Amino acid sequence: MAYPLLWNSIQFDPSLGRVPGRPALTRRLSDLRAAFVNQSACDQILNLGDPAVYQVTQIEDQEGEGQLHYGLGIIMPGKVGDEYYMTKGHLHAWRPAAEVYIGLQGQGFMLLEDERTGKSTALPLSADRVVYVPGHTAHRTINTGNEALVYWGILSSQAGHDYGAKDRYDFRKVIVEIDGEPVVLDRDQYVDRLKADKR
Ligand SMILES: [Fe+2]
User: Fold this and answer.
1) Which residues are within 8 A (CB) of 5 and not within 5 positions of it... i.e. 6 or more apart?
2) Considering the entire predicted model, what is its pTM?
C-alpha cells in the first residue's frame, strides 16, 4: 500500500495499542503454538478457544534507502502454563539492520539472541525504557505483567522480517513464572522441569 505523503504525524492510542485507520495483524494462540514449550497447556487453552495473543500495526508508508518503518505492538497479559504470552520472534531479512523498541505501557522483557554466536540475554521493556536490538539478533517480546504491554519498534525500511529462521531453531531461553515472578531459564532446563513435573 503506497501513501503519497513524505511527512506525516500519526495519532495512536497507547493503551489500546492501535493506530486509527490502520489495519492491525492479530496473532492468535494457534499461530504461536510452536513457540511455547508446554504443548499440552497450549492445547488445553485451544480446546476452549483461540485467544488473541498480540497485535501489530505496521506503518510502512515509505520505502527505499534511508527510510524507516515502524510498528505498534500490543501483547495481551496471559500465560500458557508458566510461559508468558509473547511474540513469535524474528530476525531481520537484512541481518545488519538494528531496531529500537520504545516501551509505552506495561511490563515485559525482550529476549535477544545473536544468531552468529548463540549468545542470548533478556532485557526489560516498560513505559520508561528503550531497548536497542543490534543487527544479526533474533528478538522476541514477552509480556510478564498484568496489563497489556505496548511498544513501538522502529527500524530501517529495508530490514524486512525473517520468521522462517526461527521456525528451524527456537530461542534458547524462555521466560516463565516461578513463585509469581518472571524467571529466565534455558529452554532445555525448562523442558526438564516440565518432564519432572509430569512424573
Ligand atoms: Fe524486528
Assistant:
1) 61
2) 0.93
